Amino acid sequence: MNTDVVIVGAGPGGCVLSYLLARSGVKTVLLERHDRLDREFRGYFFQPLVLKFFEQMGLLNDVLKMEHEKVDAFHFIDHGKTLFSVRFDDLPKPFNYGLIMSQPLLLQFLIDQALQYPNFTYLNGAIAKELIQEGSTIKGIKIKRRKDEVTIKSGLVVGADGRYSTVRKLSKIQIEKEQHKFDFIWFDMPASKDRKYPLQIRIENKGMLIYIPKGSQVVQVGWVIRKGTYPEIKSKGIEHFQKQLIAVDPGLEEELPKHLLDFKQCSVLDIQTATAKQWVRDGLMLIGDAAHIASPFSGQGNSLAIQDAVVAHDVIMKALEQKSFSLPLLKRYEEIRRPAVLQIQRIQKRQADLIGISNPLLLQLRRAVIPLIGKTALFTKMRDQLALGAQQITVKTAYFKD
Ligand SMILES: Cc1cc2nc3c(=O)[nH]c(=O)nc-3n(C[C@H](O)[C@H](O)[C@H](O)COP(=O)(O)OP(=O)(O)OC[C@H]3O[C@@H](n4cnc5c(N)ncnc54)[C@H](O)[C@@H]3O)c2cc1C
Q: In which domain of life is the source organism classified (predicted)?
């Protein structure tokens, strides 16, 4: 196959970039290793900025026809009292809410939209295996699709293949990791009709619980543990684990033992932030988690990946005008996005440090001081950056052919 751009990975970054390029008339191939999009874990929460982008693309009305929940605020509850809330409903209308919706359905919708353009091809069950390189320039990719090995020659390869990016590894780009003190245990639980689970973190001496409502009467439950202690937790048995969660939220007493029966229902997320040392090379670009991993506190990953895609679209279109995907032309993408991503990672680090306080004196100080800080202009600025991005970005619709 021959194409202008091949994108590896149909996550939010890869799907949005595919749609924007397809609509701009660029010959684009999107590869996804799974046959079905629900085979990968996918976060369901989207920041208000993502709504704004969909509006600019003219897709928001259709997106909102899919099953979704609107989120007014993200609450941090400390020993039963609200420590602070990230209020989306204080943002300027109409993008004054976050969105919770099935990510596989949203990704499929974006792919279907892109497939309306004859210059776009989607290959599922297609695993990126090897980069084609001439000197230091990337010229395409070799993939395995079912039993076939396929060579795709391409002016640009975009690695949108997530935190364990194959493209990043194949191109020998190093990442700088910053370990956190925590891991998360996640599981889904049916939410009873009588009880609401607003988006929140509940902090108690006995532990930290996170609720992410997933719509369709399902809530994603997160439990924060000290890094590396999952085997110890498992060895104490599921009932002991249930009791720990119930001690933090007694409201779980009836439902949890009915639904959480085995650790097989749980997955563990190694919390880390990381940044690739380079995001572009000649003929290559990394976007989303392949370039940078944000901590899951405050749900930034989807938004950051989509912001990357929006900026990458503009940079790729300009590079195409110059008929070159050389490093100096692609570098603008990294120059625009790296400082903004760093800023979000910095805010998240402060949040994690605050949440992780265990010293009793500091805990008292936190309870006294944070509710006051929550009312300051500095806090509002941080909220705006988390909800609407750390920089002004708009979809460049002038490139669209229709
Ligand atoms: C437990 C958990 C909960 C989270 N919850 C949220 C949330 O609610 N909101 C939020 O904003 N963020 C959340 N995140 C973070 C968010 O999921 C990521 O930041 C986001 O998905 C990154 O998007 P992406 O497009 O860069 O990559 P991904 O979404 O990771 O997509 C990468 C795609 O590449 C494919 N792929 C990988 N390797 C290959 C290969 N070799 N060949 C072909 N295809 C390949 C994968 O199958 C995948 O489909 C969460 C993360 C975790 C782990």
A: Bacteria
267 plus 289 within the same structural domain: no
Atom of ligand 1 nearest to the CA of 129: 41
Residue where the block lists tokens 């982008």 = 53
Range in 127-141, 178-192, 284-298, 380-394 with the lowest mean pLDDT: 178-192
Atom of ligand 1 nearest to the CA of 14: 25
Q: Do 286 and 258 belong together in one domain?
A: no
- Alpha carbon separation from 71 to 57, 66, 87, 118, 199 (Å, rounded): 22, 15, 9, 37, 7
* 34-89 pLDDT, tens digit each: 999 987 777 889 999 999 999 999 999 999 999 998 999 988 888 888 888 889 99
- Ligand 1 pocket (Cβ < 6 Å) reads 8-14, 31-34, 40-45, 127-128, 160-162, 166, 186, 212, 269, 288-290, 296, 299-303, 305
What residues form DSSP beta bridges with 81?
78
Does residue 311 share a domain with residue 261? Answer: no
Mutation choice for ligand 1 from 15, 17, 32, CB with most ligand atoms inside 8 A:
32
80: in domain: no
- Domain limits at 195? 177-271
